[in-house]
Every structure is written in C-alpha cells, then in structure tokens.
Amino acid sequence: MKLVLKKTASLIITLFIVSLLAFLAFQIIPGDPTTKILGTNASPEKVQALRAQLGLDRPVLLRYWDWLVSFLKGDFGTSYNYLRPVGSLLADKLPVTIALTLLSFVMTVVISIPLGILAGRVRSQAADHAGVVLNQVIMAVPPFFFGILSCYLFGIVLKWFQPGNYISLSDSVAGGISYLLLPALSLALPRIAMTVRMLRGSIREELTHNYVYTAQARGMSPGKILIRHVLKNAMIPVVTFLAVSAAEIMTGTIIIEQVFTIPGIGRLLVSSIGNRDFPVVQAIVVLLAAWIMIVNFIADMLNHWMDPRLAGM
Amino acid sequence: MGKKKKINGYLLTGGILSALLTAVIVTGFFWTPYSTTAMNAKEKMQPPSLAHFFGTDNFGRDVFSRVMQGAGTSFLIAILVVLIGCSAGILIGSLCGYFGGTADLILMRICDTITAFPAILLALVIISIAGSNVSNIILALGILFIPSFARVVRIQYAGIRDLNYIKSARLAGVGTGRILYSHILPNTIPILVPAMTIGFNNAVLAEASMSFLGIGIQPPQASLGSMLKDSQNYLTSAPWYALGSGFMIVLMILAFSLLSEGFQQSNR
Amino acid sequence: MKRRIASLLSLVVLPCALSMGFGATAVMAAGTKNASSGKTELVVGLSQDLDNSLDPYQITAAGTREVLFNVFEGLVKPDTDGSFVDAVASGHSVSEDGCTYTFTLRDGVKFHNGEAVTSDDVLYSFETCAATATNTAVAGALSDIQDITASDNEITITLPEANSSFLSTVSSVSIIPKDYTDQATAPVGTGPFRFESYSPQDKVVFVRNEDYYGGAPQLEKVICRIYEDANALFTSLDAGTLDMASHLALEQVNSLSNGYEVIEGEMNLVQALYLNNAKAPFDDEKVRQALCYAVDVDSLLELTEDGHGAKLGSSIYPSFTKYFDETLVDAYPYDPEKAAELLEEAGASGLSFTIKVPSNYQPHVDTANVLVEMLAAAGINASIQKVEWSTWLSDVYQGRDFEATVIGFDAAYLSPDALLQRWVSTDSSNMIGYSNEAYDAAIEKAHHAADDEAQVEAYKEAQKILSDTAANVYLQDMADFVVLNPAFTGYEFYPLYAIDFSKIHPAE
Shortest CB distance from C231 goes to which of B39, B60, B232? Predict the structure, then answer.
C-alpha cells in the first residue's frame, strides 16, 4: 500500500514536469500557431492581432498556470488548428489508437506465449535453431517496413485489404477492427519475437533446476510440471516485459498510423506539433506519459507480486 | 549442458554478417561505385543489374551506392548514440545505485520524465533549436537513450554495493572511484552487452523512424529511413528501391542481434 | 508441435517471398478497377488537411480553396478558360467610363441552409470580406471601392477609376448568408455542393445541392479522404481505395497499376528558387543572375518530370494566357561559364548558401535536390535544410531569415495581382525583400490602366523587370496529373487551384 502511494505521488510529479517541459518546448521551437493559421497571408499586424486573440501575448508561466488549472478541472482547451474542444477531438481519435494498441497487445500475448512454450520445449536441435534464427529475423524488421510491405502485398497485389480506407469504429466495429489487423500485426511482430525468445530462454533455464528432476522422479507428468512449476517461474520476467511492451506499442502507433493512414492520436500528435497546436499536444503528451507510467507501474507491481524475492527492494 | 564444444552457429553467422556489413560500410565512407548524388535523367528507375546492384532511383542515382552511404550514416549514428547513452548511463546509474539518497531520487525522476516524454517531440525540440545535422541527431537520440542504460546499471550497483568484497574494499581504504569503476563495473558487463546490442538496434530504428517522419538526415545525403519513405511511391514500378534500403536495415539489426545471441550462448 | 513451427515459418517467410512476387504484379493488377457505370459517389484523396477555418475569407491554403470551390461562389465565378461567368448574379453591366458595375441578382438562388440570397447578403459579404479577408491583395482591391449600394435585386458598385480586372476581385468575394457565425466550422454557401461533415485528419464530405440554380450535379456525394502524406495517398490509390486524386507526380502516375484515366494539366504555381534580395550574397544582382545561368531548367524538368511541366521566366504562369510573357522563359540560357564569370565579377567565387525547403512538399524537396547537384557543377556549394511547414512560415516567410528557398506560389484569384502584387517594395508579404522602383511603378500603372491593353502591357513590363534583375531563379509551373476511376469522366482543369466536382459525372 505504501508503495502504491509512493508510486502514485511520483507519477503525478512526473506528469507535472512532463507537461511543463512540453509547454516550454513550444516556446523554444520556431513558429507559433499563428504562423500556420495565417499561412502566406500573414502580416505583422495580423500576427499580432491573432496572438492577442489566442492569448499568446501573455507571459509563458501565466499561460501554463491557466492551462494547468483548467486541465485539472477537466477542460483541455480548444484546438487552435481544428477550432474544436480538445476533449471532443480526443474522444474521436483516442478509441482508434486504444483499439490498435489493445489489438496489437492481445496478438502479442496470444501468439507469443504458446509459441514461446513450444520453443522452450522443442527437443530437436534443428527446429530450435530454425526457430531462434527466424525469431532474430522478425525482430530485425522495423514495424514501418513491415507495414509498407504488407500494404503492398495485401493491398496492391492481393487486394485483400484497402490501404487508406479506414472504416471508422463508430460506423462499423467489425470493419474498423479488420482494418486495424495489419497495422496491429506490424506493431506486434517484433514484440512477439522478443517475447518468444525470452520465454524460450527462461523455460530452458527453469528446466535445468533440481526441482524439475525431483518432480519427474516422483512421477509427475511433464505437462503438469511445466504448468505448475516451470511456467510459474518462467513467466515472471515475461509478464514484466509484456507490460512494458504495452507502453511501447502505444508509442509505436505514431509511425504506424502514418503508414496506414489511421486517424488516431499518433497522427494527431505529429500534425499538431507541426501546427504548433499546443493545447492538443499538451493533452496528448500528458496522456501518453500517463499511459507509459501506469503501465510501468503495473509491471513493477506484477513483479513484486509474482516474485517474493523482490519484496525487500 | 555440455555442448560448449560445438561451434556456436550464431556467433559465426553473426560474425560473418557483421564483418561483411562493416566492410561494406567502411568502404562506403571512402568509396562508392557511383557518386551518391550524381543524377542522370536517362538512367531513372533502372531495375537491378550488374551495373547497378540495387537499381537506380527516381533521379537515376545508384541505389546501392546510396544504401552504402545511408548504412554508414545509420551505423555511425547508432554507435555514437549507444556510446553516449551507455557512458552517461553508467555514470548516472553507478552514482545513483551506489549512493542512493536524494540525488538518486531526483535523477531517477528525470529519467522517468525522459522516458515518458514522446521521443519525437523531444527530438524535434533539440533539432529545431540546434539544426538538423548528424551531430544533433546523435545528441538528441543519445539523450533519449540514457535512461534505459542508467536504470540497468543502477540496479546492478544497488545489488552489488553491499556485497562483502565491496565492503572489505571500502574498509581497506580503496577510493570510491576505484570501487565504482574497477571493482563493480566489470560485474555489470554481462548485463551491459545485451543492453548495448538492444540499444544499437533501437538506435538504428530510431534514426530510420526520424528520417521516415522527415526530421532526420538532410538530403541529398542518403539515409535508410528517408530512402524507404521515398520508395513508397515506387513500390509497384521500382520495388528494388524499397527492398534495397529496407533489407539493409534488417540486415544491420540482424547481424548484431546474432552476434549478441552468440555471445550470450557461449557465456552460458 | 512441428505444425506450429511451420505456421510461424510461413508468417516470416512472407516478407521474403515478396521480393520474388514483384515481377508478376503488373500482370495481376492490370484492369482490376471495375468500371461499373452509374456510380454517383466519388472518393477523392487529399494530400493535406484542410485549413483551420473553412470561412471563405479566412482560407489560406490552396488545398482548402480548391475543394471549397464547390461550396462557395461569388456574383461571378472563374471558368475553365480564365473568363468569368455569371454565378449568384444572373448578369452584369459596366458603365461606359468603366467605373460603375451593376450586377443583377439571380432569381431563386438559395443558400445551403435553405434561405434565399438577398441583396443584403451580398452587401454583407462585400463588407465582411473587405474587413476580414486574410488575403491582402483582395482586401486591398476591395478597399478601393468607392461606393456599393443595393436596390431590389440590383447591386451597384462604383470605383474611383476604371479597373479592367475588377471582375476577378468580385469573383473572390464569396456570397455568404448575413449574420451566420459558423462559417469556420460549418460553411454555408451557394455552390453546387453542400458541406456535410469534416473529421480532422480523416475526411470531409460534400453532398450535392439539389436546389442548385444550374441544375443539381450528377454526383450525389463526394468523400474527400485526408492523407497528409503523398506516399500513403499513393499506396491507397494504387490499391483502388480512391476514385480520384490530383497533384500527382509523373513518377507516381507511371507507377500506377490499376488502369486509371490520367489527365495532364498544370499545377498553376510559380515554382522558383526564391532568393533573399535583401541580404548578402543575393542583394547583388550579378550573383542572382549567375545562379540563373547556373541552373539548367530543361534538365531539371527532364530529371523531375521527364520533361513535362512548363518553364517560367517570371512570376506569372502560362494559364494566365494574355498576361504570360513567354519571351522571358529563355532569358537566362544554361551557361555555367558565364555564371562563374559573373560570380567572379561580383567577388563571390566559391559561393555557398543554404536552401530552406518545407519538408512536407516533396516536389519542392526534389527540385532542391536537383538544384544542389546542378549548382555544384558550376562550382556553387548549396546545401539543403528541410524545415517543417510551420518553421518555414515563421522563419522564411515572416521572419525572412533565409538565403534561398524553393516554393511555389499560386494565385488565390484570377488576377495577375494575385502573383505580382507581393513583390511591390511596400507589400507585407514581399518575402524576398524585393525593392525596385520601376517595378512598383509598373504595377501602379497596371492598376490605373485605362484599358485592357495598357494593363496587360504594364503587367508584362513588371514581369520583364523581375526577369532582368533576376529577382529569383524562375523554374517551372509543374505538370499536374489527375487520375480518375474510368467509371467517372468530365474532369476539367481551371487556371487556378480548383477541383470542380460538378463537372465530374459517371461515365456512360
């Protein structure tokens, strides 16, 4: 309980720092929202007027304070570029990214754990080597490269899939999910390979322990030994890794959404940075940071819970 | 296991691949079959041939020469990023892990912040302040890579500092610097080597992703990421363009992962 | 157990198998787009998102203007041949001295919200446009109006002096309903298509205006998908997701595998290597001229577009027919030796400079790539700095902190002023800091020209001055390729940025 409190406090502090840094970053990068809005029609007077209208002429810290206060009240401000409340913009985009992340995460877990167990148990040297090499190859394929290749293969050559024809989840859940399958797989593949590699290693390591031989001697079936004893221990590092993967998949969506033209928060973040639309960037940055930290926190908790040896740390 | 005598296939394959790659890359620093920038309207989009191993691009430039150059740039960036991340990580991690206390708390909080901050925003900030050139990309990525190394090192130091041999070294009056870097550091190497391999892979990927998003290497200098991006337009008519640059990335990461896998297996 | 490994294998072998499959693709993909006639829903790909405000007077991006062309109309509107046709007005007359324009409001024109267009709306539109338009040239031209009055269905505009290009100004004043405040997010106009919805980074949907005075268009619905990335758009197009896309590059069109109809036109842009005339080294006319001689535009066109595209010699593109002066195109023939000579004379041998180019416009980045290579051949060391569009706007366009940049300027409305006004020394959008008294005088002369001929003459004189002083290294009006699903037909090019959906209809 004490640990939970401590972690929560540090989460809040970090979020605060992250949001402040993001805010300050916008003071440093060249360009402000008025430049994008006025485009090639800008004149110094117009820039001045628009800056005043958007409240950009006020001191930085004061603006940050205002942002913080309304953010805490649940008001994320209004996007400069889309002239819509950031909240409603996120309500549009967030479900897509969450669906993509979840789908990819589920794929990782569902595919990698059976394969990992299999790889850990395979007796044949040749099959084991083939598996390891394959794994290494998959790990080496960047998600965006796989994305481009699969757009080409499944989209242009085989026509199983229409790149760019994203179906909104609100129109059709099944349609939306089926569009997200390939992007989710692109993100999941390297994670699957890493998890399989890890699980294989830790199962093999566990199998060398004495308790396995003892159990065997007592006539316990290999399946039972695997599930009751070996997996229980072998899964400890894997569960932590999977939890961290959930965070990495979420950040990985930034590029995959570009490749597959998915209207999620990754694309929104990239374009909003370009537009200097900082109410939007602020909200997404805080959201992503919170997600990364919560997931890491869960990973820590799982670790402590599963591995009593760590309790003292 | 008793199988140590067998030739470690991973080490061998990884070694051969890495050696080949390094040879290609080092050669690329001094010499490429064609100029990497010379354009030729008559040779646009040529398919692979003996004259052009990977064909030519939309300006008639030799893709193989550009892949050589791009791989060299990625390689240089990745190595330096890992070096920066790793050495700064060792410094921070060792101090935090060994001494603990408030400084540890603050430094680890900073690491959390960097980890939680979207990498592309951070990279963009650094690059738009300092300008988009190779050294700033290295700097931006290097900073992003510090926390992961610092964490790994810190846990090692925190675990080792209370072991008896360190305690006795302290009692024997060995200086803190020596304890930190000649007594404890060697013990972290089995953990650091795989972390560096993963770091190298991630750095190659990060550079490629940045170039892919258009905030990396400036043209006409070749970069694997931006070549891959440009090649998207020509998947149907000139697939070699995408494959040449894409597979170079794959190969580079694969070679070093195999090496690392090999090292780990032979240490077992 | 083995079977599972096999399935893992097949998963991984796929990317490898790709490389072998490529050869056969051309055969497989040919003619897959089904040409089912009678389709009345058009899916268009846009390579950039819309402007933040859809208010017709606030639009800044050409990409937004070209689709909202279907929603908004002025009293008159531009036609494909560059003339003006009646729109919200059913006719107009000009007084003999050329100072008074009388427009007759068309009967029964309705806004998309169902309300009838009244002369009050027209007055409101002219006032609002003059007061709020972000386009300085339009706002400036409107401020010249001496008097504007309405009686019944007649609108009379009085000018202080004759202006033969006044109709172009009128065409740029979209008629909008009085006191309607949601134009920015839910635009309402009188055009053939009604704005239905917009989802940022996703799509914007238009449906046909059943009450359109010119007859309802044949297409029922136009869905514009937003890509913000030309490469992703292209992949989508190649996979048959889209019915239409415009502003494609030649290489993209050549790569298309699915039997689209390809229509070639011009981008209607003045692409140039714009030089900062106010700062060293380009404050020296000789240095600028040297650059002009050092650039081989023919070979640039050959490299980037297989020779398509139209060469330019000044700040006007060929679609401006009578205003375009083609004699300037070859004012600076490729001559690297002469370039070197001029540089030496100017004491600028071994010149080196940086070209800042917006990273989101690939054609400009490509052109910059070629320029760097060409200039290197003439001993000039140019390097590229790709910057984000926002950075470009703030540093280059507003801050004027640059040496050279590659960009294309389009005309917001059909008057040479839309392209030439900005180089007047006092103009706030004079990005290159061009300052030439003779030029200012020529533009002034054009504004006050008594007749059309004199005006054309004055605009040509202005172009000649830009060319003589090598204000910029003028390059080209790039070729614009539009591809259309063969199930549709009727696409037509305009001399400015516009995609007219009302002309497109299902093929027979």
Answer: B232
